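[job 4471] stage=fold_predict status=RUNNING
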Amino acid sequence: MQALSTSGSATWDPVFTAFNQMATTEQVSNGVSQTVPVLVGAGSQATATVMQNFNDVIDSRTSVKQGLVSKEEFIGNQEVWLKPLGSWAEQNQVNNVAGYRGNTGGLILGVDRAISQKTSLGLAFVFANSNLSSNSAAAPSSLNINSYQAGAYGHHRFTPSTMLNYQADIGINQNKGSRSISFMGTTANSSYDSYSSHLGLGLNHHLQGNDRF
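[job 4471] inference complete, writing structure tokens
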């Protein structure tokens, strides 16, 4: 640390000087933990959760259009619908990586209709907001994500019992992070965009049970 502190870098010399002035190993450990990225892996996990919720709702909506039983209830009519979504998560510390708490809320809006006797097509848009905060007292940090996703979906019926489901979607996620660096008396902030995409195909075949059984 002493050698690095005399490197002549106006950016890093104050950091190394602050480390050199720490009296205990615990202070150094806490200081290092304040310099790592905000909520390692939690942001991508929150984005993946939004995508999974979106995909699950679209899958259920496709089932409705096929006349099947759906696990979801939708607000709207046969062509225009909306669906609130929400989730809550908590992860404990794993391998010295601090845990976090997070919650996500949003709304999916969709429109779909039959374009022929065998084919349906729909469009859907989702907005979701995720808030995450670390459980670390030594290195408190937070992350806020606004997620926007748009997708197309539908199905094509080959026979009365066999059909193809399809879905494609893209998304942009606006991330804003904050991390306390108390040993420097400052807060590090970040702002960046990430992108997501998904393509799915599924072939369904329904079997009719024998009433005798």
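[job 4471] summary: The first strand starts at residue 75 and ends at 76.
[job 4471] exit 0
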